[in-house]
UniProtKB/TrEMBL annotation:
SUPFAM superfamilies: HD-domain/PDEase-like (SSF109604). The lineage of its organism: Bacteria, Pseudomonadati, Pseudomonadota, Gammaproteobacteria, Cellvibrionales. Gene3D superfamilies: Hypothetical protein af1432 (1.10.3210.10). This is HD domain-containing protein. It comes from Parahalioglobus pacificus.
Length: 163
C-alpha cells in the first residue's frame, strides 16, 4: 500500500471544521493540496525516521490552518498551536505526549530550526519538501533528517510540489 493510499486519521468532521476555520484559498499555496503533500512527505519520511505517524499526519493538516495571509505571518504557527489544543480529544484523537510534539512542530515549523525530536524534525522536513509550490527548491542543508536529504526523496517531493 502506498503512502497516499493509507487510511487517514483526518475525519470528515475535521474537514468541515477546517473549511470553516481556514481564511485563505482552500486550493491555494497554504491550503488543502499543500496539506495533502505534507502528509504524503511526512508519512514517507516517517517510514525511515521512525517518527510518530499520528503527529506527522495531524501536523500536515493543522500547521497552516491558522494563517491570516499567504505572505509574512510570523504568528501562524502559534495560532496552529491554539487550534491543536482546542480540538484535541474532539476532532483529533491524540495523547498528551503526542499533543506536546504536535505543539512543538507547529510552533516552530517556519523558524528554520534543524534539531528537535525526530517526530518534530520529520514534520518540519515534510513541510519544507513542499517549497516548490512557491518557487523554491528545498536546500538539503536546511532539512533536518537524512531521509529528507536523500536526493531521490528530495527530487520526488520537489516534482510533486510543482503539480
Amino acid at each position: 500500500m502506498s503512502v497516499s493510499n493509507k487510511p487517514s486519521l483526518i475525519t470528515s468532521e475535521f474537514i468541515v471544521y477546517a473549511r470553516n476555520e481556514f481564511r485563505l484559498d482552500w486550493d491555494g499555496i497554504h491550503g488543502a493540496p499543500h496539506w495533502a503533500r505534507v502528509r504524503h512527505n511526512g508519512l514517507l519520511l516517517a517510514e525511515h525516521t521512525g517518527a510518530n505517524r499520528r503527529v506527522v499526519e495531524y501536523f500536515a493538516f493543522i500547521h497552516d490552518l491558522g494563517r491570516h495571509n499567504d505572505g509574512y505571518d510570523p504568528e501562524h504557527g502559534h495560532r496552529a498551536v491554539d487550534i491543536a489544543r482546542q480540538i484535541a480529544g474532539d476532532l483529533i484523537e491524540i495523547s498528551g505526549e503526542e499533543l506536546d510534539l504536535l505543539v512543538e512542530a507547529c510552533s516552530g515549523h517556519s523558524d528554520g530550526h534543524l534539531t528537535a525530536d525526530v517526530t518534530v524534525m520529520t514534520c518540519w522536513d515534510a513541510d519544507r519538501l513542499d517549497l516548490g509550490r512557491v518557487g523554491i527548491r528545498p536546500d538539503p542543508d536546511r532539512l533536518c533528517t537524512a531521509a529528507a536529504r536523500k536526493s531521490g526523496v528530495l527530487n520526488a517531493a520537489y516534482e510533486r510540489s510543482l503539480r
